[in-house]
Amino acid sequence: MPEKIHVMIVEDESIVAMDLAAGLEHDGYTVSGIADNYEEALKIFTTETVDILLMDINILGRKDGVDTATALMKIRPVPLIYLTAFTDTATIERVKHTNPSAFLTKPY
């Protein structure tokens, strides 16, 4: 049996995160963890298996999703997919520097 793909979710809206996690698990993925801020994301990313990172841009705390993704990709590059409602030009330019695999706008 093939090993499951481990997905980490960084999302500040708990209902959205839980719905996304339930859908992923239903489709056969393993959710490594759900974080709503940089510190929690860093802890999960460094202690759990993470094969794919799903990142919201608007998260809790001083660092947003782009800052968080940048820091995590320096530790270990994994496929990065943004799930966000932020599509303004300045945000898109910041996101480009993190080399995401995809950028999906909410609602997805």
Q: What does this protein look like?
A:
The chain has 108 residues and is α/β, with parallel strands linked by helices. The protein contains 4 helices and 5 strands. The chain has a 5-stranded parallel sheet, sandwiched between helices. Helix 3 links the parallel strand 3 and strand 4. Helix 2 runs parallel beside helix 3. The longest helix has 13 residues. It is globular. The N and C termini lie far apart (30 Å). The model has no long low-confidence stretch (mean pLDDT 95).
Tell me the number of strands: 5
Cα-atom Rg, whole angstroms? 13 Å
Give the low-pLDDT segments. Answer: none
What is the beta-strand fraction? 15-25%
Q: Biggest sheet, open or closed, and with what strands and sense? A: 5 strands, parallel
Helix content: 25-40%
In a few lines, what is going on in this structure?
This protein is α/β, with parallel strands linked by helices and 108 residues long. 39% of the residues lie in helices and 22% in strands. It is globular, with a radius of gyration of 13 Å.
Task: Based on the model shown, name its key terms.
108 residues; single chain; alpha/beta; 5-stranded parallel beta sheet; 4 helices; 5 strands; 39% helix
